[in-house]
Amino acid sequence: MTALTQLLGIETPIVQAPMAGAATPALAATVSNAGALGGIGIAPSPVETARTMIRQIREATTRPFQVNLFCHRPAVADPAREAAWIAYLAPAYAGFGAQPPSGLIEAYPSYLVNDEMHAMLLDERPPVVSFHFGLPDASRIADFHSAGIILLATATNLAEARAIEAAGIDAVVAQGIEAGGHRGLFNPDAPDERLSTFALTRQLVQELDIPVIAAGGIMDGAGIAAVLALGAGAAQLGTAFLSCPESAADDAYRAALLGDAARTTTLTKVISGRPARGIVNKFIALGESSDAPPVPDFPIAYDAERALNQAAKATGDSGYAAQWAGQSAFLSRTMPAAELVATLRAELAEAAVRLAAVA
Question: Is residue 299 classed as helix, strand or coil in its secondary structure?
Fold first, then answer.
């Protein structure tokens, strides 16, 4: 047990990343029942859908779980920029016999301005709430603490982590550059230090007084043992759980994770408008071409990608989907989530014995 596992009320130092769109209530509940911390991302969900998801988890487990929120700056519409992006993608739409959208919309609001979501969370009181892309204001943090909710937040560098600690957040998720999905950058327009999971974890352990959860490129028990040796209180794994039958990944996504495609990931903002790591595919290649115009703001850019992906999927082409994955995605294994947690726990124990022998 670590101080963090005691804080979170879990038996093993494993956190399942609350991957929006991929992590399901079934996955979260199964992971929590297995002694780790399961989770879901509710940022893109309508409030009542998010409420239903939380209640579905509660029906399947009595153990702690987390829900994740996006604290990005609200999108800034730019009709000219969006029109240029649509025009650039138009030939790809035409290739699938589809019309591009006439305009792009902000698919969901930032939690920073979503009062209804905040009220719902205070009503439902999930055990753990986590923040990505930044932090809410002090009053919302105080509301959560008053409700007895444990708070986590993602940092990609020491400055962000210090802001998280100063805000009174209970623990920080140290997201290395290896991580799949969206970078948790507070300001995506600022230079990114691109720190590795190991470097960032060690920095935060040395500099902060709150527990650290290491995230990025961790796929097995040896990786968990390595970050625990650096002083982390737990490891967060996302990509490792995508191949579990309880995830929402479709067949094409699973095939990519288990094939050679998983050996090539890249950090790109062309899919959503913010930097995110995924498996290289046709949409990323198209969006990063030298003649591509600037990408619309997050999450407005998603609207164009989703529409094109739907048109492509209708013809059996999965090359335009957002297949988020970390740098070690090729180490993915197909097994039920409970079995994966048990396997990770056994591998962690074996790795701990090896580390002890070396010491």
Answer: coil
